[in-house]
Write a structure and sequence with these properties.
Length: 234
Amino acid sequence: MTGRGDDRGLQVRVKKKRGLTASSRRWLERQLNDPYVRRSKADGYRSRAAYKLIEIDDRYHLLKPGQRVVDLGAAPGGWCQVAVARCLSGGEGAVVGIDYLPVDPVPGATILELDFLDETAPGRLIDSLGGSPDIVLSDMAAPTTGHRRTDHLRTMHLCEVAADFAVRTLKPGGHFLTKTFQGGTEGDLLTMLKREFRSVHHVKPPASRDGSVELYLLAKEFRGAGRRDEESEG
């Protein structure tokens, strides 16, 4: 994506108001001055996060027409919008999102309002998808507590659960993309992904805010359960 500097001269300031905290004012100013937020409104995307997936896909070419895609932590629906646009073609392909938060309908996608940690969630996702996914996407993050270490551990747990779902359900050759945070404690996860996939990358798309500890882990070309069975027999 280009043109980030087009809006550089526009700086909106939010005046101090009674009842508006300094942190809330800074958040409002950041939103109002964020070119990705403005562009998402112009392009019809639910959130600026849509551009993170667009930028990653433009670089790594994950999403293709006719694929089945699972979107974990789908609210507010921006990643589902991108997946529908790039994967649904001529009646082929499917996109299923899940989130415990309500999501307005996304044309072409099925949205499950359900916590992914619910024991029924994996089965319902596969049933709704109509088969094994080609791609598992996860933009899940735990609600923040303000304690960085706690927030990191909680989000890493979601990342690990998403990875477990991916290796249990993906088609051979499929891909897994998940949000993570800088800060360690991901050694075991990386070891598992490197064993199960042909390549693993750390990705920070330009749409991730400067200074954010957010990263994405991209695991490409799932080796498949058959390979693991052969290794265990050998």
